[in-house]
């Protein structure tokens, strides 16, 4: 049995199952928030959730690491507006999980 990292629900795993960390309900693709809209986050909101600075997020983007993000055209100036989706952030966080031995000290 494992506990879902999103909702805490306990779920059973079988031999050969992927190393899921979410229950079946939370694994279902959900990019939409209230009203059917995708939940869009600013770099400041993401930085707060991750307890890092906005500058760290910018560095990650330049290095090609960190959560996937959206970049909207900046009028051809090469910058643009950066945003993240909650779904992409959650997926990235799950990919960062490190499995430890149960009962290990």
* Cα Rg: 17 Å
What's the total number of strands? Answer: 5
CATH class identity of the largest domain: Mainly Alpha
Number of separate domains: 2
CATH topology of the largest domain: Multidrug-efflux Transporter Regulator, Chain: A, Domain 2
CATH architecture of the largest domain: Orthogonal Bundle
Strand order of the largest sheet: 3-5-4
Instruction: State the order of secondary-structure elements, H for helix, E for strand.
Output: EEHEHHEEH
Coarse shape: elongated
Helical content (DSSP H or I, runs of 4+):
25-40%
Beta content comes to 5-15%
Terminal residue distance = 20 Å
Low-confidence stretches: none
Number of helices: 4
Mean pLDDT: 79
Major sheet: 3 strands, antiparallel
Q: What structural category do the secondary elements indicate?
A: alpha+beta
Walk me through what this model shows.
The model has no long low-confidence stretch (mean pLDDT about 80). It contains four helices and five strands; from the N terminus they run ββαβααββα. A hairpin with an 8-residue loop joins strand 4 and strand 5 (about 80-85). The longest helix has 10 residues, at about 55-65. It is elongated and about 50 Å long. It has two domains: about 1-30, no CATH class; about 35-105, Multidrug-efflux Transporter Regulator, Chain: A, Domain 2, CATH 1.10.1660. A three-stranded antiparallel beta sheet has the order 3-5-4. It has a two-stranded antiparallel ribbon with strand order 1-2. The chain starts with a strand and ends in a 10-residue tail after the last helix. By secondary structure, the protein is of the alpha+beta class.
């Amino acid at each position: 049995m494992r506990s879902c990292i999103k909702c805490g629900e306990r779920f059973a795993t079988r031999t050969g199952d992927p190393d899921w960390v979410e229950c079946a309900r939370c694994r279902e693709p959900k990019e939409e928030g209230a009203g059917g809209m995708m939940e869009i986050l600013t770099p400041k909101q993401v930085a707060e959730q991750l307890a890092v600075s906005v500058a760290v997020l910018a560095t990650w983007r330049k290095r090609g690491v960190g959560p996937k993000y959206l970049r909207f055209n900046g009028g051809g100036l090469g910058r643009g507006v950066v945003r993240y989706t909650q779904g992409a952030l959650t997926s990235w966080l799950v990919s960062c999980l490190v499995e430890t031995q149960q009962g290990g000290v």
